[in-house]
What we know:
Blueprint: H1 15-23, E1 34-38, E2 41-47, E3 53-58, E4 71-74, E5 77-83, E6 90-97, E7 100-104, E8 127-128, H2 139-144, E9 156-160, H3 162-165, H4 176-190, E10 194-197, E11 201-202, E12 215-219, H5 226-238, E13 242-247, H6 273-276, E14 277-278, E15 283-284, H7 291-307, E16 312-315, H8 318-322, H9 342-358, E17 363-366, E18 388-390, H10 392-403, H11 413-417, E19 428-432, H12 452-468, E20 472-476, H13 501-519, E21 531-537, E22 542-549, E23 552-559, E24 565-572, E25 577-583, E26 599-601, E27 612-618, E28 622-628
Parallel strand pairs: 9-10, 9-20, 10-13, 13-16, 16-17, 17-18, 18-19, 19-20
Antiparallel strand pairs: 1-2, 2-5, 3-6, 4-5, 6-7, 6-8, 11-12, 14-15, 21-22, 22-23, 23-28, 24-27, 25-26, 25-28
Helix pairs in contact: 4-5, 7-9, 12-13
Amino acid sequence: MKTGSRTANEKWLSDEDLYFWSQGTLTKSYDRLGGHLVEDGAWFAVWAPNADSVSVIGDFNAWNADANPMERTGSGCWECFVPGAAWEQRYKFRIRRGLYVADKSDPFAFQMEPPVPHGSSVQGLSGILTPLKYAWQDETWMNQRSGPDTLNKPVSIYEVHLGSWRHKDLGTSLSYREIAAPLAEHVKDLGFTHVELLPVAEHAFYGSWGYQVVGYFSPTHRYGPPEDLMFLIDTLHQHGIGVILDWVPAHFATDPQGLVFYDGSPLFEYNDPKMRYHPDWGTYIFDYGRIEVRNYLISNALFWLDRYHVDALRVDAVASMLYRDYSREDWSPNIFGGNENLEAIDLIKKTNEAVYSNFPGAFTIAEESTAFRGVSSPTYNHGLGFMYKWNMGWMHDTLAYMREDPVHRKYHHNRLTFSFMYAFSEHYVLPLSHDEVVHGKGSLWNRMPGDEWQKAANYRLLLGHLFGHPGKKMLFMGSEFAQDEEWDHDKPLCWELLDRPLNSGIFSLIKDLNTLYRDCAPLWNDSPDGWSWIGEHSDDSILIYERKQGSESMIFVLNMTPVPRENFRIGVKEEGWWQERLNSDATTYGGGGMGNMGRVESVPVPCHGLPVSVVVLLPPLAFLVLEKGS
Length: 630
């Protein structure tokens, strides 16, 4: 039993812990550093190699820096035991270096109190002693999940900002527990396979949406304690829904109580002032060359997979990590004089290797917007080791095309077709994310041209191409019913739009597209043999392509103009009946009801270089999905 008067043999950090920390291989460092409750108090450990002295201050000692001084243990770490420290007591570290004195929050805190505007540093962002105990009920899910197998399965992601999905009557956000059941039921009803949560790690500035992190190991206080986030993830798992978490290793918040200038010197951030500051977001950049910082970040990635049963990490802003000159004119080159951030690249590879070796059922996704090669290739093939990469090119080109008035689309046909040139160069996710409905970009709905009916028809076309194009699928919340306002993190989604026929029709289309996607193996086959052109009629703005798996075949026909095409001939490989599996002009989706009576029969007339063909009625601003019948 630990007591207040320690003996020389009483230690918290073992020599082995300190060695592995200094080597960057203490991958569960969150079990050793930070504040940890034991039977009669708590042990505290912190990395502050340049400090002259460190003390623990908190509710247990009336925030008296003289009460519990810490002892330097080696490898830049300090530790001490505080008898009587108890669950949910607040604490910080008082760090001194010369004239520098600061009260810092614990980088490994499992829970943090709300920051108090204009309050003292003791009041804001203190760690809270939390044991992280929760009785998980998702054993079935955890035993059957397999991240690598998702390459050959449907992955359809619903992206969520927890604070603005839905509000209570008083205008406040739902808590982790309150959102759990309705979110799980909504996502399951729509047929999505995964939920992606915008960052939930603690952030002082709500308007950063979680991307300016202060507490990397602490779920934000805004929606409840850590156990309630576990309950949310558990609930989603019990509904058969995977959970992807946005993870932000590219930069961190500048709040003074956090990681910034932690021990009186640049510690977590670059010492080089040219590389320290992120010009896009006003944040600091991690020093990826420092072994302990790398250890901290790898441990953090594993922490969310370990303690919170997260199924995947979507790594934010990877491009900004890869290049030393990202968004900056004045920068320091690497040791070879180049612009690649070699240390960050190595960290990314090591993180992915650690994820897959420790949690083989999990996977990782890169938000990466450049032509960097091998993002979704294994590290043993000289890749970065992600399972997937966001296809930003597809997103930008497709949305630019959809904004064009249909009369002009024939002049921009290549925007719609270019993505097929590189669709198989990586394992892609096709993202229609939160980034596309903020910062003056407007909603997806209001980027569609035409009157209300044409906007809805164009919106349905966008969704049809999303599900027809090779790649996993992703939609930001509100897109399932075509929210017509730009997303505002302070407001709930406009759920009342579901009372409008055009919007409820789009909601029904999403459900049917997800059902089609999950039921039809050709739509999961994102390899080169799973897709082929049948024909493109650029002057008429019509696209025809095939998705296939073995003997199964599905044909997508997209008419990007408001001109109906009667007796439109499409080449097919086989004789017989072709079923009209989906028609976006159906009245149930808000369309005009033009169709092909459910199926069409092939005729022995060659077309598009194929031996037989079918003749269809192609509705205006609509897509058809045809499937070979028995």
